[in-house]
Design brief:
This protein has about 150 residues and is mainly α. The chain has helices spanning about 10-20, 30-35, 40-45, 65-80, 85-105, 125-135, and strands at about 110-115, 120. It is built from 6 helices and 2 strands.
Length: about 150
């Protein structure tokens, strides 16, 4: 398998190439030669109206929505609410459902998981939480539930 090459152009040059191609001032071949951005990259991003660059799955929440959720959780924590995995799951799931419901003008979107061909409605999963805490590790601390065992005398 061939080794992937890293990009050698800046994000500004990339945006200039895409803008020139979208504005139909140059073809994607001419934009590639002029700005040094690969032709396939220019063609792929022609219809990418929000200019998102990067790999991976699109986020459930926008950056502003995620910052708001982080601030909300931080405020709850400072107010004395214990942020356990269960409470975080419930709060985050309710927040996401409400946000997505409002964005889709009444078309309710729920988090549906397929497990053994059964469909159930749930809250965001472990991977979302792990990534959310990595992005907000400076603000949020989660308490781990510890079960206390009774000692019989």
């Amino acid at each position: 398998m061939a080794k992937k090459h890293r990009v050698t152009y800046s994000l500004d040059v990339f945006h200039q190439a895409i803008s020139a191609y979208r504005g139909k001032t140059v073809s994607y071949v001419e934009a590639s030669k002029k700005f040094g951005v690969p032709q396939i990259t220019i063609r792929k991003h022609k219809n990418n109206t929000n200019n998102h660059v990067g790999s991976g799955r699109p986020s459930i929440l926008s950056n502003n929505q995620e910052k708001y959720l982080g601030a909300l959780l931080e405020e709850l924590h400072s107010g004395g609410v214990r942020l356990t995995k269960e409470t975080l799951s419930k709060i985050s799931g309710d927040f996401m459902k409400k946000v997505k419901h409002n964005e889709n003008l009444g078309k309710s979107i729920l988090f549906v998981c397929h497990k053994a061909s059964l469909v159930y409605v749930g809250n965001p999963g472990r991977h979302w939480f792990d990534n959310f805490f990595k992005r907000n590790s400076d603000k949020l601390k989660m308490k781990k539930e510890i079960k206390i065992k009774k000692h019989s005398s």
